[in-house]
Records
---
Amino acid sequence: MRYIQKAEYGVPPNTSIDESDPLFVQAIARAMQVLSTFHEAGKPLTLNEIAAAGGMGKSAAQRVVHTLRQLGYIDRDADDRGYVPGIRILDHTRDYLRMNPLVARASPVLMELRRNVRERVDLSLRDGLRLVYAARLQSKRETFFATLVGQSVPIYCTSGGRAVMAHMSDAEVDEIIERSVRREITPRTITDPAAIRAKVQEARENGYALALEEILQGEIAIATALVSPDGTPLGAIHIAGSLSEWDAESFCRRFAPLAGEAAGAINRF
Amino acid sequence: MRYIQKAEYGVPPNTSIDESDPLFVQAIARAMQVLSTFHEAGKPLTLNEIAAAGGMGKSAAQRVVHTLRQLGYIDRDADDRGYVPGIRILDHTRDYLRMNPLVARASPVLMELRRNVRERVDLSLRDGLRLVYAARLQSKRETFFATLVGQSVPIYCTSGGRAVMAHMSDAEVDEIIERSVRREITPRTITDPAAIRAKVQEARENGYALALEEILQGEIAIATALVSPDGTPLGAIHIAGSLSEWDAESFCRRFAPLAGEAAGAINRF
DNA sequence: ACGAATGTATCGTACAGCGATACATTGTCT
DNA sequence: AGACAATGTATCGCTGTACGATACATTCGT
């Protein structure tokens, strides 16, 4: 039995909480902290690992895990060797997806788009310095792990991220670049601030953003932004293909108009 | 802006918790209770609604919501009119999906299956009296809301459920039937215990289960069970099509072998 | 067979979270 | 417009919950 794929190029969400907030319930923070331990895990976890990772005592971890287990948010591994996330999580996934108006509005358009495009089509939503994939329509050849709902990627070095940044002020863009932990995820990841700004500018002019192998070797992706009525960028639509089948120019010529149309259909108020 | 689709035919999970458990952390239960309020909601919720639904005081709801908001598990609605589930939920979705060995093992097989089948293909996992959809490869014509990850259906009246029950003892089957709140979701939903037992027996003999419009009008579905090495049923693979294109017999003849093969490929330890 | 690491149980004390209440702000009805 | 109802926000003293240390049980690894 194998357990694979931890965070990898995923981005941890911002969990910098304000200490000494009179309304803040610490027990809840502990619970979520425990659940979040799995973000970095590649295998079922033991109580001690959870306690250590959460910076809490063994007793605290024990009680939290016990409680979450009763409620179904944590399970025992199939072989009873450790703890894994529980199925009740999916109930909340459903709630999130169906109550997010952007997802609801975008989905039919995405499926229509997928009909005209034999490549992977994704919807991502902005959360701080990252984009979180909310809906993914995989192409024929994709592997499962590359296309998980909830997967997240940095804004600074992705097509979707740059499409989003294209709808921000220069100051905001700079702040994102500044605060991001930039590293070369692949050899072709663009990490230089000036170069990123240039790509954002390019996206502004083209109306779409392009990224070549910045996250995954051999992957080409273009994206267009989804914006709220007041112009705030909320997320992006991605079309991703393989460089073994496409060169950048023909990929853009073929898919940029489609991606633009799709975004347009969603963005109308 | 519209917010649609609440629980409907979804099944609420079993949250009957043991009172007076010395290790039970009530604050966590409260937090999850609050998040679970959205299961039944068709629109953004107010503080008072959350408090009332959770059977707690306004202050308690206030603190819980405040905390979950800080952590990103609850957001304000786009128009600042109410509370909605937050995007951090998706991080845990990803954890669940990738750390569940059955999902991991089944996914490539599912995609291969989808390649040979132009209909919807689903993977569901058992949780008590219900099946929870964990992976869904939609066909061309599906609407988004019909194919949400996290959607759940009762065991007693679905193809997947009967495929699962086929791998249980008669006593276990009876218990499921007994404990389920059986109602006619559609006019064709089978709710009579004896009739259900007969359908289970039929599934045992055929190696697959069939359901006709028991959940959704016009839908036909067949399913095969996924079992652990010791024979315990863990979930099912579904193939679902439309009665406007298929009659029961040809649907089975065409897809039963494929569903069986797929389940077989996954079940080999 | 042994030792190390796991999950489980117990218990008195401190402080976290409870509920009542009061305030602020928004939207709605006539 | 003006008043009202309903929303989210803040404050505070008391109670009871969750804390951590420790001891026990059980499984795993070698």
---
Amino acid sequence: MDINITLPDNSVRKFNNELSGYDLASDISRSLAKDAVCIEINGQLTDLNTLIKEDSKCRIFTSNDQTSLEVLRHSSAHILAQAVLNLFPNTKYGVGPSIEDGFYYDFLFENNIKEDDLLKIEKEMHKIVLEKQHFSKEFISDKEALKIFSNQQFKQELINTADKGEGVGEGQVSTYKNKDFIDLCKGPHIPNTGYLKHFKLTKLAGAYWRGIETNPQLQRIYGTAWFTKDDLNKYLTRQKEAEKRDHRKLGRELKLFTTADELGPGQYLWQPNGSILRNQIEEFSKSAHINNGYEFVNTPHIGRSILWETSGHLDHYKEGMYPALTTEDTDDDYYLKPMNCPFHILVYKNDIRSYRELPIRYFELGSVYRMEKTGVLHGLLRARGFTQDDAHIFTTIDNLNDEILNLLTFSIKLLNCFGFTEIEADLSTRPNDSIGEDKDWENATKSLEEALNQQKISYKIAQGEGAFYGPKIDLHIKDAIGRRWQLTTIQIDFAQPNNFSLEYVNSENKKVRPVMIHRALLGSIERFTGILIEHYAGEFPGWLAPNQINILTVGKVDEYLNFIISKLSKYRLNIDDRNIRLGEKIHESRKNKVPITVIIGENDAKNKSIAINYLDGSEEKDIDFNEGIKSINKKLKKPVFKI
RNA sequence: GCCGGAGUAGCUCAGUGGCCAGAGCAGCCGACUUGUAAUCGGCAGGUCAGGGGUUCGACUCCCCUCUCCGGCUCCA
């Protein structure tokens, strides 16, 4: 019987016996056989040792393919579990998938292990790797599986609930075995454990079984695995790069912001340098809003409980709010605001509104306070007190689509000005705990989707991730090292206008309900600043830098210095005319990440010349001062916001 | 909130039950008067996160609390 195998280049190879993926690879070339990791047979990814028994379309994956890397990491997780069970035989094991850059496995140990134990486990893994144990796949019945995993509660649960794709199917499960270790798994795996050469266990953390908070908490071991030593090292270097960008570290070094135990967690103090940066961001945002049809409002930080009862916050969000402020003088409780919307609504309600006024767009840099769980706090990126570039738009249903579309454009252009050009969206739909009519939710979700399509932004649907009062669009940006951050949120709200009985008078002189849009574009100023710091690694674009120009002098140049200062007076300048070595001044200037370092010495005074150092290491030397100022103006130019 | 780790000078970190707790950087004082990535010398700086306990003796061991870090869950 002939077997015809079609390869990706559409060439066909004939064989007269059934053969394994490895045989096929060997038949093509020796190097391919050496590199092959797994194989796709008729669209089905599987092990390299799978027998091909009939005419098939095949594609062999080598260590160069991303798919192989995922297989390697999944196998690494198995080897990790195997090592753990060798060392701690009474451990219960959960699940162990491959993830971005690595893998993990969740365990319930008899006694919780410590970080030091990771080294021991890593050693045991190396032993298993050296033995080049083969992975073999087997299908067994549920019954048999329950027997094999009789003392493994998590595996039992997986077999019984049969929905997680861990090799569990109807009436039967697939397992993988290497030496004495067996796991539920649909595969595929690397041919043998020897394929795992370059790996490292990276951290130990807690994780709830199946990610559910009420389930027991397991210990999760994270690792990373790569096909080459070079790739592993590159990954480790990348991790270090990310550490260097940490906004908490840079914030301290550049004296941008600080905190104090006395303030309580999640509250930050902006130092003068940070305040300059922050003010630049806020001023830019404000002027963009002024020029785009927003009216500014200002509202207090606290409100009576009736307000939060009306808005539904006390029903749906109480645990996210700071506890009530009570006094003996009044029966009323007051609450710190976790959102600005109820206040903006009160401004709206202060007057009878006509359809001619709509849409009304109220903007405020509004500070809010949210009782985030201590474990989630993360510098400026997740703080308890923060300021939103917040606006609430009250519109007729007819104008809703236009408003959403305008908002998307507004936000994208604004983010572009700060250097974020790669933008994607999430469309979040109705969650379980929510208020409002089904029909309204449907319509609102549809408007958002239409706007996204018109703007041609790539987006994905986040099922059930909406706010309790309406669906939303979130915009995510990609930073300089490829990480995604959520910034803009645009939320439609049919509920609050009902809660507060909002009205406007339409053209037929009837009172009708407006629709409300909540939106924050940069999101939280704190968070946005944190992301900017990490994106630019503290080397901000000239217009944002707290100190824009450092002028370093060499020798006696007072008169010429004053002349140069007069030419640059519109910028934030620092003069370093100390009598110390130039090298030290330059070192300091670079350390402080000042975008422009100007050097003038006696020669420059004589020649009306100037030298400029930039943070990227480039420099202009002995150039005419006019030319120098032109370069500086260019480098420090503020972007123009235009829709 | 949960699991694990950590908290020593402004910052980065040494110091594993035994004189009075150290270094580098930063700060202050002085010398040097400087042309491209840190000049030299001196001084000052500490309730070793806070509280309790064990001990003749605790930064060090134990308990509690607080805060920070890595995750999990959460993020209206």
---
Amino acid sequence: MTHSKEPARTREAGAKRRRLMEAAADVVHRQGAERTTIADIARAAEVPVGNVYYYFKTKDELVAAALSEHERHLNLLVSELNRLPDPRERLKGLIDGWAGQRDLAVRHGCPTGSLAAELGKRDEGGLDVEAGRVIRLLLTWVEDQFRELGRPDPEGLALTLVGAYQGMSLLANALRDPGVVDRECARLTAWIDSFEAA
Amino acid sequence: MTHSKEPARTREAGAKRRRLMEAAADVVHRQGAERTTIADIARAAEVPVGNVYYYFKTKDELVAAALSEHERHLNLLVSELNRLPDPRERLKGLIDGWAGQRDLAVRHGCPTGSLAAELGKRDEGGLDVEAGRVIRLLLTWVEDQFRELGRPDPEGLALTLVGAYQGMSLLANALRDPGVVDRECARLTAWIDSFEAA
Amino acid sequence: MTHSKEPARTREAGAKRRRLMEAAADVVHRQGAERTTIADIARAAEVPVGNVYYYFKTKDELVAAALSEHERHLNLLVSELNRLPDPRERLKGLIDGWAGQRDLAVRHGCPTGSLAAELGKRDEGGLDVEAGRVIRLLLTWVEDQFRELGRPDPEGLALTLVGAYQGMSLLANALRDPGVVDRECARLTAWIDSFEAA
Amino acid sequence: MTHSKEPARTREAGAKRRRLMEAAADVVHRQGAERTTIADIARAAEVPVGNVYYYFKTKDELVAAALSEHERHLNLLVSELNRLPDPRERLKGLIDGWAGQRDLAVRHGCPTGSLAAELGKRDEGGLDVEAGRVIRLLLTWVEDQFRELGRPDPEGLALTLVGAYQGMSLLANALRDPGVVDRECARLTAWIDSFEAA
DNA sequence: CATGAATGAGGTTTCATTCAT
DNA sequence: CATGAATGAAACCTCATTCAT
């Protein structure tokens, strides 16, 4: 109880890989992929540095793991929202989720968006494409909601909504101002409400 | 005078600093601050590596120089737009400018925004605050236009407009899709047009 | 008995060690001792990495096992050749064997010779001596044939013949040219034929 | 005089690169390319480890430098021998050179040959081809001598002579026996002498 | 100021070997 | 004996920064 030094193996096998993925997602979100060292992630996951490579052969694989964690979280959120009967409520639920993560956005931006921006600076590795794929998952889901609502140009509306989210996250982070998220989320919610029923 | 090796110091004296700033802004935009080395910037500016330090004492100062280049460009743009008599036309001119930089945004995102996102991952150095300041310059100018247009909540409108720009830049870059910029710029222009005259 | 996981231990028991030795000989010949990892050998032998250490306590023991495999092959070849009644035919049979392994020599050199060269770079471990011992086995056998042929200085002739083999293997490998083996083997055969009967 | 710590820069600029090449050739000959670390070479050249990379971007470039040193030595030797008027004397001079390096061959084998053998184990990098090129330089020169002597099949004779050298070097090294070089060099000299004048 | 060269801290990665089950 | 997982020592390499000329 005093030390966490006790062998983690006894608890559950395979949990380490999960711990590493979560640590990678978290640390990369906070520090950025370039500034994050393997040692940072290893420390956060309470795993010896050398052991990390048993689970992930390169640093890039760890970054990919962070990305897939964000994908997992997105899928969880979407599953949750899909239980709501009304697409309008689903979209407003999504926006509520963004509002709820306000402080995280202020400190570090959108996890997926800021990672995508960083990976987009690379010329090789293909991780940039992977990031685009995760973002497109959200876009497609949002588009589906607008379509179900019977709105014309659901693809454009999805771009506008998700773009607004990425924009507010970046501004809130750059200005260190939580009010940005509050205002924009309120505006977006009102925007959704302004749509007449199908 | 004796050697032809003698450089035209007086002629190029100030030019080197300028070249370094421009190179820093360009290379950092393309590669990101972390992935950019001093040697990269020196090469792009055609300045010997060892010489860089006479103009910029640290790498952070070079990043700050990149930021100030973006600030300079912003000021130039704003000066240009301020010549237009109508604030509505000024805002539409701003949006036209974004549309005109579409391909750059697709490849590397908004220069200031992506740099701000990267610097926001740092805990020290204060460059993140500097980036926020540059972004705020744009926000304030946009806000002034909305105010002059007589719109209520000009600050919120500015956040929405600039946020939309940051969002479209990030999405266009992540998806490698120029259409994102086209669509959103068209929408924003229509949005501005939807405001009645003061 | 309860689980089908139960392996046929008794059946495969000794086979694993044999598989590991063969894999070591093969992989070390192709990649060299230094570039070969325990994992490489384990994979080639289809033995779990952690299990290797029950058969070979160190990597050096595996290299020694590779050497002893080459020794075993040499002994098999010599036994075969010893069935021939004429020492001249035995020597020519040896050369034929070299010619038959031409393509292997072009790709990776003589298994024993290239391993001896690599081990000769070491200052410790004694494996270099072991490699010399295996090579001397061949030398002694060849010497015996020349002696039986009644040639003067059989030791010198053996050095010449085996040296020619090592030289052609190295050159064929370095030049990636199978013709080297063809030419030299033909020459050596003619050389043997040039000796008058005892 | 007591310490060699004094800045080497004062002596001659550019000498460091030369020192590194020589150290690489020497250490790689003694330890083999795989067992040689950058630190080993740096120490032998009295250069800080980090500085090595200013001159050679990768370890492979250092190995290539070692190879080119051997090429340089070969060219020097050949230039020397070319001063002799008689091709027979030139070839015997070459063999005398081998005999003179007897002890080095016993300890570490032929510098070029053992390096070629090691590089031949690689699948990538192209250094193996480079090693073959250097060996071919010697072959071609020897071939030219035999041709000038008016012997038939000069290419085959060159293969035989150079192959004998590589073979004796490998055997002498594997057996740790200088006598191998003595005997074989004597035999080769007699062989050359056995050719009638053109 | 100018410049190629120097330096060392720190990061990524590999791998022989050991250990818990 | 069997096995996946663990460990840490070392190797390669990068780069911001400094220095000698």
---
Amino acid sequence: MDSLFASFPPGTNPGCPSYATSSLARSKPNSDTLAPLFRNKILCEPGERIYAQGSPFTCCYLVRSGAFKSLVLNERGDEKIISFHMPGDLTGLDSIHRGHYIGSAVALERSLVYEVMFQGPGNELRLPPEIQDHFIRIMSRELANIEDLLMLTSEHTAEERIIAFLLAFSARQSHQNLSAHQFRLPMSRNDIASFLGLAVETVRRMLTRLHEKNLLKVTGRNVEFIDIEGLRYRLKTA
Amino acid sequence: MDSLFASFPPGTNPGCPSYATSSLARSKPNSDTLAPLFRNKILCEPGERIYAQGSPFTCCYLVRSGAFKSLVLNERGDEKIISFHMPGDLTGLDSIHRGHYIGSAVALERSLVYEVMFQGPGNELRLPPEIQDHFIRIMSRELANIEDLLMLTSEHTAEERIIAFLLAFSARQSHQNLSAHQFRLPMSRNDIASFLGLAVETVRRMLTRLHEKNLLKVTGRNVEFIDIEGLRYRLKTA
DNA sequence: CGTTAAGTTGAGCCTCGTCAACTATGGTGG
DNA sequence: CCACCATAGTTGACGAGGCTCAACTTAACG
């Protein structure tokens, strides 16, 4: 695996998949490539949704600041978190091929997004040539990200999933020039559990376990790594 | 969920996700839209791989006949099946953003593929305007497909996964004007197990269970539905 | 016809989900 | 500023679903 969070723009990191390595820390977000497509700027408060499952598809959204979760309601009515979106990420890519959004995007904190419009009046997609390349690579990367998540949830234990998640988030932090060792998670335990395909209680149990092993410290949503190499090690020797 | 197999081209099926319904049977494959991008035609024997994980990315491949599995080797060295590709599907989309293939594609039976080339000499992507729209929708749809698989594997029991898989395959069959009630699976039990995030033994146990409940008949790779409504019912009332 | 891989079946165990009770947190209105 | 309530988070006990391991049968293929 490579990353659990979308990265932007794609870098080049050949070789075997390596869980939650520095792949997220490749290159700086370069969101301005899409600037010609920007429309409105929207400010979101925590809990607010920029689009709702089933509503007509209008555009994708580029996250400038804050954080989002994108989720799908299943037949039982409870939500499954598909991904988290950080600054530089595009949301709604999975809905382009439909006339409506196949999931919802909800702000986890006060956030700023741009509308990214590329549909003509007849709903046909029109990308300026200089953006085409970039856009397709973004989608390809998104595809690879979900595949990573798929591998993580189908072949790894609860502890490994938590570790991979935290390491990926950490990498994303340093990507934004924030501390990779100490950070505050914008999402709830429930969100993490849903994202990783676990029960909330299991998430907690794994966190306490990692705490007892002196690998990290968690108080509420604040995370502090004690032994980051130890964490990485537990991922490799699965 | 909507489908576990890529569909081509995307249709319009608004509303909540509904597992393995007729969504796969939307519209006929219309692969010729990409015809301007076709290069060589390649014939593959079972077990042959059209590209290998880590090798330099050259192009995507359109399946014309036969079937493929695309897989990723994890750090332990065993393969995880990411998707199955049927006639009309594109493979390698997840590798566009990298200089190399992030997984491998292996023929499950004697198959025919087209090389789909859209990279210029400088590796920049160049899509004819009339194809752009179509191509992006394909990628978006692929994204939605994997999200479906993600939801299936993270929130559903072994039995439900098997049922969803078989129903999706059945839908794909009728999509190709083949019988939806009786068909031969091109992939091994191992492939199915890996794809659904299960052990081979579990796959079998569920098949026998469904057999005992008079819902279907399985002999080797041949599947015959006895009570397709019964199967659908067991998916809804999860 | 022999060899190897694929498929099947059973027994036992372990991880993780479920349920229930409890505590902490944060937001709101009096 | 505090009381209140709702939501989020925590902890423990228990059970079940599915994985592991091992033995065996069947199928595929030269």
